[in-house]
């Protein structure tokens, strides 16, 4: 018995020492656990790495207010690019409070722990805790408590914070680690969030989770595809049931389930932005970890603002790719214009679109219409014909090339004028430069990413090679600069 008491006393002492090493006991400043391990401890290196992920992430800029992001939490070299998809999609939006829901890996407990006060520290600085929000969570839900030791070694919450710091400004966090809870407790927690958030539009929920662990890539993909289908259906009950049986794997299943129940209450739509596995980085597909980036948002009516476009669903994107592909095949093989009709209300909007053709990784044709003439689906069809037959830089596509083509569609927002080139976000904004009717050029957002250009290179090439102007003409105050956002997707995305 004395030995047991001593062991218990020793464990308590070690826990207290660990807590003191990781958090300032007076100010409750939570020091990082995995800086220099999961991500760089040097500020400049960390900024450079995250910015490079943003540049590489081929993600739509979503203008509907994003309410939830699902993001992975492995080391940045493995999952950082996937995480960037979700954060990049929300990059233009502003939040005052960001709730981070993360699973526990080291401290097993029942219920939910929230870090109730102080701040979290990363190499990018301090992020203050929204103490008003955390206190309300503790007051309103009996399953929520402040258990500091839960946070001592945990990485799943911490790795989201540098991405938040690089994406948003002037926000506070609600750091939450979710232990073992059942469906009713998930529902209760979702209800608490729903009540506290109320009609606030400045609250984001980030759910930190990885997917299947250490299966070969084929098994992992099959398992994760099924898991994703339940996420898209907001089916928390079935997701919990499958994970309890080992049919699905999510280390953050309780956090995800609570978020799905919250999404049900808010009637949110879901968009899957990116799925990948660790083998995509390591090359070893024998035992991979799956990573997911997804966003949940409220789809409103099309805004009259120039920079806003209703997000296309995955089904809608896939259909537009299908229209473009079938159009090119029909025109090249038979010189016929594909007869197509759509009743999807989204496709009846008049929007600009480009169709880009690649062959063996090289450009083979790209033509579009900035504003669109007629419904979107017909614009895509017509630009597909133009890209395969009318691009003056290339001969018309031949029948023997059809099997080697990759088709990409870009659906554009309406462009809006800017007064400062610093407003251009590389990989997010396309740019139009205009001097007069004879000197006008356009680059799609993905061009900067594909070429690895910085802002000055992007604008210089645009002026010199697209608008027939001097390379530095974009600096001339008489030149008109317009930007637009785009939803860009290709066959390989599906």
Keywords:
494 residues, alpha+beta, Protocatechuate 4,5-dioxygenase, Chain B, Glycoprotein, Type 4 Pilin, Dna Ligase, domain 1, 3 domains, 9-stranded mixed β-sheet, 14 helices, disordered N terminus
Topology:
Blueprint: H1 2-22, E1 29-30, H2 43-56, E2 66-71, H3 76-89, E3 97-103, E4 112-114, E5 119-122, E6 125-128, H4 131-140, E7 144-145, H5 160-167, E8 172-178, H6 183-197, E9 203-208, E10 213-215, H7 217-232, H8 236-244, H9 253-266, E11 269-277, H10 279-282, E12 288-297, H11 314-334, E13 352-359, E14 362-369, H12 376-389, E15 405-412, E16 416-418, E17 429-436, E18 439-443, H13 445-451, H14 455-466, E19 480-490
Parallel strand pairs: 1-5, 2-9, 3-8, 3-9, 4-7
Antiparallel strand pairs: 2-12, 4-8, 5-6, 10-12, 11-12, 13-14, 13-15, 15-19, 16-19, 17-18, 17-19
Helix pairs in contact: 2-3, 6-9, 8-9, 11-12
């Amino acid at each position: 018995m004395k030995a047991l008491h001593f062991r218990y006393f020793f464990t308590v002492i070690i826990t207290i020492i660990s807590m003191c090493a990781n958090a300032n006991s007076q100010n409750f400043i939570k020091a990082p656990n995995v800086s220099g391990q999961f991500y760089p401890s040097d500020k400049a290196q960390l900024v450079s790495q995250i910015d490079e992920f943003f540049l590489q992430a081929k993600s739509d800029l979503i203008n509907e207010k994003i309410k939830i992001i699902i993001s992975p939490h492995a080391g940045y070299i493995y999952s950082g690019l996937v995480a960037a998809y979700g954060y990049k999609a929300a990059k233009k939006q502003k939040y005052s409070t960001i709730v981070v829901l993360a699973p526990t890996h080291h401290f097993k407990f029942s219920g939910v722990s929230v870090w109730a006060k102080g701040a979290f520290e990363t190499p990018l600085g301090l992020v203050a805790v929204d103490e008003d929000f955390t206190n309300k969570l503790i007051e309103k839900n009996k399953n929520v408590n402040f258990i500091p030791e839960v946070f001592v070694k945990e990485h799943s919450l911490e790795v989201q914070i540098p991405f938040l710091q690089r994406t948003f400004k002037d926000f506070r966090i609600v750091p939450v680690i979710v232990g073992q809870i059942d469906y009713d407790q998930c529902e209760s927690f979702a209800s608490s969030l729903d009540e506290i958030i109320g009609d606030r539009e400045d609250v984001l929920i980030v759910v930190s989770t990885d997917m299947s662990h250490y299966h070969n890539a084929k098994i992992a993909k099959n398992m994760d595809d099924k898991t994703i289908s339940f996420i898209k259906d907001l089916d928390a009950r079935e997701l919990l049931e499958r994970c309890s049986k080992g049919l699905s794997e999510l280390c953050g299943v309780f956090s995800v389930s609570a978020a799905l129940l919250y999404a049900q209450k808010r009637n949110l739509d879901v968009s899957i932005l990116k799925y990948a596995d660790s083998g995509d980085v390591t090359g070893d597909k024998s035992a991979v970890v799956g990573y997911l980036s997804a966003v949940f948002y409220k789809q409103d009516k099309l805004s009259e603002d120039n920079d806003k476009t209703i997000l296309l669903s995955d089904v809608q994107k896939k259909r537009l790719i299908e229209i473009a592909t079938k159009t090119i095949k029909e025109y090249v093989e038979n010189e016929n214009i594909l007869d197509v009709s759509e009743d999807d209300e989204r496709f009846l909007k008049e929007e600009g679109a480009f169709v880009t053709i690649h062959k063996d990784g090289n450009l083979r044709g790209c033509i579009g219409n900035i504003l669109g003439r007629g419904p979107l689906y017909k614009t895509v069809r017509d630009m597909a014909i133009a890209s395969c037959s009318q691009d003056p830089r290339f001969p018309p596509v031949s029948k023997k090339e059809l099997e080697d083509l990759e088709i990409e569609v870009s659906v554009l927002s309406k462009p809006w004028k800017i007064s400062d080139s610093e407003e251009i976000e590389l990989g997010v904004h396309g740019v139009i430069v205009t001097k007069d009717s004879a000197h006008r050029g356009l680059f799609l957002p993905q061009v900067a990413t594909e070429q690895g250009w910085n802002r000055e290179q992007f604008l210089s090439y645009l002026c010199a090679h697209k608008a027939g102007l001097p390379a530095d003409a974009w600096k001339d105050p008489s030149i008109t600069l317009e930007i637009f956002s785009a939803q860009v997707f290709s066959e390989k995305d599906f």
